[in-house]
Amino acid sequence: MKITVITLFPEMLDGFLNASILKRAQEKSAAQIECVQLREYAVDIYGTIDDRPFGGAAGMVLMAEPVIKAVKKVKTSSSKVILTSARGSLFTQEKAKELATHEHLIIVAGHYEAVDERVMDEIDEELSIGDYILTGGELPAGVIIDAIVRLLPGVLKKEQATHDESFSHVSLEELKKAIGGDPILHALDKKGITQVKLLEYPHYTRPQNLEGKDVPDILLSGHHAEIRKWQLQQAFSITKKRRPDLLS
C-alpha cells in the first residue's frame, strides 16, 4: 500500500512515520509512505499558498490551485483522496479497515481556517478524528495512517492483535451466553442485531502480585473457555459504563 501526505509541514510527521510499527511496515514493504511539500506547488515565487477569504470571515484560506496541482501530480487511477477536516465524517475503526483495502491513499492535510471549496472536485472524502479543532491536519493524517497501517497483512507480529481489541465485533449470541439475561442484550436481540462492538477487556502481565494487587485467578487457570467468558463479561461491563452508545 502507498500513502501520500500532501502537507505544509512534513517535518511534523517525519519522526512519527519513521519509528515503531510504521517504520517496521515500511521496512517490510507492507507500506510506502511519502510526504509531499505543498509549498512546491505555490502560485508564485514567494511560495504563497494561502489568502484572505472572500466575505470577510476570520483567518486565512488554503488556496485551491496549489492543492489541485499537488493532488493531480501524485494521483493515479487507483488513488483515493482524503482531506482532513473538522467538518468531515468521523474516522472510525470500520473506516480504517475500509481504507486499508485501497492501493493508494492521498491525504491532504488541511490547514489555516479552511481550504478553498473548489478543491472538492479532487477530494473523495473528508475525514475528522473528533469533535475538536486542531491547528492543522498533520496530526489527524498521522492518526489515520497509524490506524490503517497496523491492519495491513504482516505488519503486526500477531495478526490476532487486531481482532480482540476495542471496537471489534462480538457475536451477540456468544455475548448472551457469557453475560446472561441483561436487558440491553435482550433489546439488541429484539432489534435483530447479531454483532456488538465492545471496548477491550483488562490485561495483566508479570508480576503476579503487585503491592497486594493480584492477577485475577481465572487468567491463571488455563481454562480457555472460562477465560473467554470472563473477558467478554469485563468488556461488556466496561463498554456499558464508558461507551453506552456502542450498545444502543
From TrEMBL:
GO MF annotation, one? tRNA (guanine(37)-N1)-methyltransferase activity
Name all tRNA methyltransferase TRMD/TRM10-type domain ranges: 1-173, 195-247
- Provide the binding site for S-adenosyl-L-methionine: G110, I129, G130, D131, Y132, I133, L134
The family annotation for this protein states: Belongs to the RNA methyltransferase TrmD family.
Query: NCBIfam families in the record, alphabetically?
Result: trmD (TIGR00088)
Purpose: Specifically methylates guanosine-37 in various tRNAs.
Full protein name: tRNA (guanine-N(1)-)-methyltransferase
What is the species of this protein? Candidatus Roizmanbacteria bacterium RIFCSPHIGHO2_02_FULL_43_11
Q: What is the lineage of its organism?
A: Bacteria, Candidatus Roizmaniibacteriota
Gene that codes for this?
A: trmD
